[in-house]
Write a structure and sequence with these properties.
The protein is mainly α and 452 residues long. Helix content is 86%, strand content 0%. Helix 9 (262-275) packs across helix 12 and helix 13 (375-398) runs antiparallel to helix 14. The radius of gyration is 23 Å and the shape is globular.
Length: 452
């Protein structure tokens, strides 16, 4: 006698397979969408940086970096990890959006005030644009705009509204590029035009993000102390790790501003802008991985997929870096002019660490999605101390070239340390983490649109 459940099982299996296929197709579509948008953004940023470099030269390029980098770091500090914490709490269904949104919006002006004060204190201490309050105000004007866009994007990530999150990314880059051409070049406003263009791009990002957020439910301000404390408790670990990471990324700009010249800052900034393009391999997938991670039911299975992504990203980065290494000597003078020839050597010195650090970036996204962003601090706090100490010595002796050597060495140290830590936290063996696995080819085949 056939049991009724046995009769139903083929249909049930068919439904399950259909849902799995539909979910896979959605993931692939989102992946392609995010990648396409990210590539568009980087192309616009690349063209914009090319115009700025040729328009302002190393000194002017250095001034732009000296003004914008501290403001970006201040945003990371004052944001308190709220973006990632929002994604976590929404993704895990801990706090509903109607209760969360008003408090989220009310936190923007509070965090902005703290970031603006920090930035202005730093400008005065280092002497950036001393006496030129127009440039300083333009630099800090982006802070509240960046924070509001960041908080809103946390909602999109937590709800897996990847398409909407993607839509917020390319418009600001396009508007900023248009404004650089109109104000910096055509109108001849130079550095003032470039800073206005940066503020214009941030304004577009903020306005569009809030527009999308308002479509979900009417925007309103309110402050729920319990919600704010819950976001900040989880956010502190995200914030601390993000700030430490950002400092490691940009500490050489700060040290060069203090110990070197604006020309050194400009040469290094242009080199790092090209070298860090290699990070786009994992970065274009980072938001998607984080969004999936905070919603993942089987963390070990998800980690194995992330490890495959890390291995593929590393191989792709090696190939790209070889091309960049050989082409740098020709690319920099052609693209940015002969004043940036030294940036080619700086870029080549940065490549080993930049490529290795891709593994760190992908593995960290996985642990952050599990709600363990603090793991980055275990490695990156001592690496930051090493970065400052080694960078100080190398910059005093060798200028921007020394900064590149110090930065690359620290990225290598950080990657080795984090792989060992990831092994301890996840329980996955170093062999599983580093070496190709038997199921990799099958996983790649299933991930392709035609591999179902």
């Amino acid at each position: 006698m056939i049991h009724p459940s046995d009769q139903a099982s083929p249909a049930s299996s068919s439904t399950s397979a259909s849902k799995k296929t539909e979910k896979h197709g959605r993931f692939v579509r989102e992946l392609i969408s995010v990648a396409t948008s990210r590539i568009s953004v980087k192309i616009m940023q690349f063209v914009s940086s090319l115009i700025v470099a040729r328009l302002l030269g190393p000194d002017g390029r250095g001034m732009v970096s000296a003004l914008t980098v501290p403001s970006q770091l201040a945003v990371s500090v004052s944001e308190m990890g709220v973006r990632q914490s929002t994604a976590f709490h929404l993704g895990r269904k801990i706090i509903p959006l109607p209760r969360l949104q008003p408090t989220l919006l009310a936190m923007v002006p509070i965090a902005s005030a703290a970031a603006i004060v920090l930035s202005l204190i730093y400008f005065e201490f280092v002497g950036i644009a001393r006496g030129n309050w127009t440039l300083r105000i333009l630099a800090v004007a982006t802070i509240p705009l960046s924070l509001s866009a960041s908080y809103a994007s946390g909602v999109f990530l937590g709800q897996q509204r990847i398409a909407e999150f993607r839509k917020t990314s390319w418009r600001p880059g396009f508007i900023s590029l248009v404004l650089v051409i109109l104000l910096g070049w055509a109108a001849g406003w130079g550095i003032y035009g470039v800073m206005l263009a940066t503020a214009g791009g941030a304004l577009a990002a903020s306005a569009y993000a809030l527009f999308l957020l308002g479509k979900e439910q009417p925007l309103r301000l309110g402050f729920d102390r319990a919600v704010a404390m819950q976001l900040q408790r989880k956010g502190i670990s995200y914030a601390a790790s993000l700030v430490i990471l950002m400092l490691n990324y940009r500490v050489m700009i700060l040290l060069l501003t203090r110990l070197g010249t604006l020309t050194d800052v400009g040469l290094y900034a242009q080199a790092i802008a090209i070298a860090e393009l290699i990070w786009e391999v994992p970065t274009m997938l980072g938001s998607l991985v984080l969004s999936r991670g905070v919603n993942a039911k089987d963390e070990t299975l998800f980690s194995r997929k992330v490890l495959l992504l890390a291995r593929l990203a590393f191989v792709a980065a090696v190939v790209i870096s070889i091309f960049v290494g050989f082409a740098a000597k020709y690319l920099f003078p052609i693209l940015y002019g002969h004043r940036f020839e030294q940036s080619a050597d700086i870029c080549i010195l940065l490549l080993p660490g930049i490529v290795a650090f891709i593994v760190f970036k992908v593995l960290h996204i996985d642990l952050a999605g599990r709600g363990k962003p603090w793991t980055a601090m275990i490695i990156m706090v001592p690496v930051l101390v090493l970065n400052v100490a080694l960078g100080w010595v190398m910059i005093v002796r060798y200028g921007a070239m020394g900064a590149a050597v110090a930065s690359s060495a620290c990225y290598l140290v950080a990657t080795v340390g984090y792989v060992i830590l990831y092994n301890r936290v996840t329980g996955l063996s170093l062999r599983d983490i580093l070496l190709p696995q038997p199921g990799d080819l099958g996983m790649i085949r299933r991930a392709l649109p035609f591999g179902r």
